[in-house]
TrEMBL record:
Coiled coil: none annotated. Keywords: Sigma factor, Transcription, Transcription regulation. InterPro entries: RNA_pol_sigma-70-like, RNA_pol_sigma-70_dom, RNA_pol_sigma70_r2, RNA_pol_sigma70_r4_t2, RNA_pol_sigma_r2, RNA_pol_sigma_r3/r4-like, WH-like_DNA-bd_sf. It comes from Kaistia geumhonensis. The lineage of its organism: Bacteria, Pseudomonadati, Pseudomonadota, Alphaproteobacteria, Hyphomicrobiales. This is RNA polymerase sigma-70 factor (ECF subfamily). Belongs to the sigma-70 factor family. ECF subfamily. Signal peptide: none annotated. PANTHER family: RNA POLYMERASE ECF-TYPE SIGMA FACTO, RNA POLYMERASE SIGMA FACTOR RFAY-RELATED. Residues 100-151 form the RNA polymerase sigma factor 70 region 4 type domain. Residues 8-70 form the RNA polymerase sigma-70 region domain. The keyword Transcription applies.
């Protein structure tokens, strides 16, 4: 399990960053996911997709964090643009476009952001994303359609 986790860290971090919109929170989520996966490695069913199991753990931890924040009341979020770090190198134009895209994705509703990341960035099938998030497939399709409509304005700009 320990060796297999390393293959999924980048995807987990990307998902955590989309959910939390904060680098530090994303890192904490990934770390908590890895700890829980190691602690509960016996619950993983060999032959199934490890990444799907890890994403489900991360999503569960995130939902618990959201509930805890509501109880504590006061922890805010940071815009996606502030979560990016630019090195000022030769790819400035690409980084600007990436910041615009991430900002637009960050402006989507939580459900739309989750669906966009899982389906478009991580390559999950609609059914897989629906199962991971615990929603019907039609909900994923609806969220993606709404997200595409909102993001279509970027293309014109």
């Amino acid at each position: 399990m320990r060796d297999a986790l390393g293959d999924h860290l980048v995807s987990l971090w990307r998902f955590a960053l989309i959910l939390s919109r904060r680098r530090d929170t994303a890192e904490d989520l990934v770390q908590a996911t890895c700890v829980r996966a190691l602690e509960r490695a016996d619950q993983y069913q060999p032959g199934t997709r490890l990444d799907r199991w890890l994403f489900a753990i991360l999503h569960s931890i995130w939902l618990n964090e959201i509930r805890a924040r509501r109880v504590r009341a006061g922890a805010g979020t940071v815009d996606a643009e502030l979560a990016l770090v630019f090195d000022g190198g030769e790819a400035t134009e690409t980084n600007i476009l990436a910041a615009q895209v991430l900002s637009a994705i960050g402006a989507l509703s939580d459900g739309q952001r989750e669906a966009v990341l899982l389906v478009y960035a991580e390559g999950y099938a609609y059914r897989e994303a629906a199962a991971l998030l615990g929603v019907p497939v039609g909900t994923i399709m609806s969220r993606l359609a709404a997200a595409r409509e909102r993001l279509a304005g970027l293309k014109d700009e």
